[in-house]
Design brief:
Blueprint (H helix, E strand, L loop, with lengths): L1 H6 L3 E4 H9 L5 H9 L2 E4 L3 H10 L5 H12 L9 E3 L3 H9 L3 E3 L1 H10 L5 H13 L6 H10 L2
Parallel strand pairs: 1-2, 3-4
């Protein structure tokens, strides 16, 4: 949240993502608290776009499909870029075809570090918290992350 606030970014969470994650008990209490406090805005895509993408990209999960549909329909995307944070390679490739920007979670922390928003130790701390909460990160990717930080 600190990174987003310092950068003037808005953070949106799709309704379907929230519902799916809540059912699976995988959405942390801290994220739900950010939603409650208004730091994260719940958004919905156009149902028509979602259904079209669901058919076209049936190999993707509901969360990726919804995120892509929200970004695709975003009326300000040409003046205020909409970036999806995810590490799903298939979703990233599909989004790129649609002209939607995609950034991996670790890349997000590297970008924040390079822009001076996060110090190296802060970026490492955030990624460590993700790893402790079952975020899958290959050791070689983690090592590259450590070497890339300023």
């Amino acid at each position: 949240m600190q990174v987003a606030r310092n950068s003037g970014w808005s953070i949106h969470l799709g309704n379907k993502v929230k519902t799916e994650a809540t059912v699976k008990n995988s959405l942390s209490d801290s994220i739900l608290q950010y939603v409650t406090n208004g730091d994260i805005t719940l958004v919905a895509c156009l149902e028509r776009t979602y259904q079209n993408f669901k058919i076209k990209y049936s190999n993707l999960g509901d969360g990726e499909i919804e995120s892509m549909a929200i970004a695709f329909d975003c009326p300000t995307k040409l003046v205020k870029p909409y970036i999806i944070l995810s590490d799903d390679g298939t979703a990233r490739n599909k989004a790129m075809v649609l002209g939607i920007s995609f950034l991996g979670i670790v890349s997000f922390f590297i970008l924040a570090n390079k822009q001076g928003i996060l110090m190296k130790d802060q970026a490492i701390k955030y990624v460590e918290v993700l790893r402790q909460n079952n975020f899958s990160l290959k050791e070689n990717v983690y090592n590259k992350f450590l070497l890339t930080l300023n």
